[in-house]
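Submission sheet (multi-component)
Chains listed below:
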Amino acid sequence: MRREPSILHLDLDAFFAAVEQRDKPSLRGKPVVVGGTGGRGVVSTASYEARAFGARSAMSTVEARRLCPAGTAFLSPRFPAYKKTSELVMGLLRELSPLVEPVSIDEAYVDLAAGGHDLSVAGVTALALRLKETIAVATGGVTGSVGVGTSKSLAKIGSELDKPDGLTVVPAGDELTVLHPLPVRSLGGVGPATAERLAQVKVKTVGDLHRLSLIDLTTLVGQAHGTGLYRLARADDDRPVVTDREAKSVSAEETYARDLTDPARLTLEIDALAARVGSRLQRSGTSGRTVTLKVRRYDFTTLTRSQTLPHPVDDPRQIADVARRLLGGVDRSGGLRLLGVGVSGLSTFMQGDLFAEREAAESVDPSGPDAPVTEPVPVDPRPGPAVVAWYPGQDVVHRELGSGWVWGSGLNRVTVRFEGPRTTPGPVRTLAADDPDLQPADPPVWT
DNA sequence: TCTGGGGTCCTAGGACCC
DNA sequence: TCTGGGGTCCTAGGACCC
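Outcome: structure written.
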């Protein structure tokens, strides 16, 4: 918590719907719902006119259609238009301060202290009013709600208090007065589950929360969450405004109009999702070691399966290979309504390793330097009860054996470590690339 | 014709290492 | 040989946010 209200939070009002109303004047003043328009679509954004009829974000579009009157516009999102407007607004924020943290396409924090502004209440109020006006003019009528406070959480709560097109400045010293009457749901990180748990011990407002001891709170909602809420209830928040956060994962998923059962179709869809993820990874110059498959079944039960590889991947084919194999281990009976493919454990470097990897593949691949490096080559490191699936240039992929595990690593040598019950002595067996024991063996049985 | 898509962070257990 | 604690990695799931 700072001694002056120097953090500003901007939240653009009903952003997607506002851009649509700006671009299509006939929609102004009318209910507009932006989101999936198919049978399984949900609402992304409802204009304030549509909210008056009960339409809400995350509601199924079918439900919104039931609530809204004839003449309501139901539109599919036009992300490029939103992105363009968002970038315009973020640019205006960067004129205020070099420290701007975009939270999403329609939301950002600004550290006014880094911009050399008058940080008095009158000063930041005037600044915020000017900003709102500038945004409305530059965007052609998109409005935003602004909060200014001594911390991120207070700024964010401020922008929520007066919507749409509002402004709330919380002066230093007023934090608890503002905070305590609010429902606990106002705090970031308190969703339906946490609110329910708190309600069971008669905690409804932030003031109620303030009365809980740290021990009671962490027992109730967990260590990290508990300490976080304990501090937020005391306006104790020193999180800095961070300009660029590196992405930690990249994923793509799709809910299908009809549940999928056909294996060929499933493979096709996995390939398409992997292609989307791979191309985004390649465009951003990253790759990741963990591939995750997400599946939602006909009955909405959702599960994930993941595998961490020895090396980062960004190639759609490799991603798809892993995802397809993971799908093989999932019960598909009854049909799947959603598939998702993701890559996490991202790393930026890669470049320096390319040469070494190619060299490793060449020195080790019996079929020559131009052989594709993505096809697994089964090998059998004899003696021992092991069958290993070996990817040239990618080290070794571990496989479960009858009674133990095998794991490989190293660039141009294959390390096989036997764990668990085994019949051969020695914890580690290292095979050089030209070891005669590295012989093609029976294809491994993929699950 | 209930329930999207893109993310982040946390927890918990097992394996493994020191 | 027994006991044990701490740290890290991996997997799966859940809560939450916009």
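Remark: The two ends of chain A are 53 Å apart (CA to CA).
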